[in-house]
């Protein structure tokens, strides 16, 4: 039984349509209140600032397409692999059937799965790029996500260009069972093949990056970058505390803690990320 399927090949100019926004009540959505500092700012200003609070710098979630727009040179992104769609090989059902959950999430987000991939340019340097979409089932990695991640590395290998992956995920997708866990080995093997061309792989870990993604390709970058205060690790801190029956240190598994202990290379605020990526690619060209 197939793990995923290909839909009818789309023309290159076609992309997955974004879901229409929910109509807001009069006056609703004009203001944004920061969860970090409580400051209220105009939502338009907050969105122009790429969902970073202008007052305290707190980073909120950023939709996947806006993230790619922020990082890539204008007009260079070409989305690929749009014909891949997840299937339900196990006939999984919890509170609702998996196939119904997929349909409902597509309807609400406009996304076929939790990963968007393609090619573009950063600072004039061609790159093979992909980003998780946490808005799709918590960015969980199923067979389609794993295939798309592997293709990011395969394209980088074929074209001899750098690879960039943005991770924001709760880990493997339980609805696909072992098919989901297999993607850890599959993506790591694709990354190993890519190493032969000696071009950089930049892994950018966002909030949160956990589970099987953190335990595989996300931590295997030549450069491992994180956003401020991102939760990064295999199991979450609550699970660890309940398992070892001990209180964890303050800030455990946050990007600042990991940088201090040598687990990542740098913490880069979102507004500086594009320039930092361009600098890294220029130095390794």
Walk me through the structure.
The protein has 285 residues and is α/β, with parallel strands linked by helices. The chain has 2 domains: 31-60, no CATH class; 61-283, 2-enoyl-CoA Hydratase, Chain A, domain 1, CATH 3.90.226. 33% of the residues lie in helices and 19% in strands. The protein is built from 9 helices and 11 strands. Strand 6 (115-122) and strand 7 (125-132) form a beta hairpin. The longest helix has 18 residues, at 177-194.
What structural keywords apply?
285 residues; 11 strands; 2-enoyl-CoA Hydratase, Chain A, domain 1; globular; alpha/beta; 2 domains; 7-stranded mixed sheet
Question: What's this, in brief?
Answer:
This protein is of the alpha/beta class and 285 residues long. It is 33% helix and 19% strand.
Number of domains: 2
Helix fraction, binned, reads 25-40%
Largest sheet: 7 strands, mixed
The first-level CATH class name of the largest domain = Alpha Beta
Ends: how far apart?
Answer: 43 Å
What is the helix/strand order?
Answer: EEEHHEEHEEHEHEHEHHEH
Order of strands in the sheet with most strands? 4-6-7-8-9-10-11
The beta-strand count equals: 11
Mean pLDDT across all residues, rounded?
Answer: 91
* Percent of sequence in beta strands: 15-25%
Q: How many distinct helices? A: 9
